[in-house]
Amino acid sequence: MRVLKWLYDNINRFVDILIVVVLTLMIVDVSVGVFYRYVLNHAIAWVEEVSRYLMIWTAYLSMGMVLRDEQHVGIEFVVNWFPPGGRRIIKVLSDIVVEIFLLVVIIQTIKYSEVLSIQRSPALGIPMVYPYLAVTAGAFLMFMENLKLIYEYWTGKKVR
Question: What does pTM read for this prediction?
Answer without folding.
Answer: 0.86
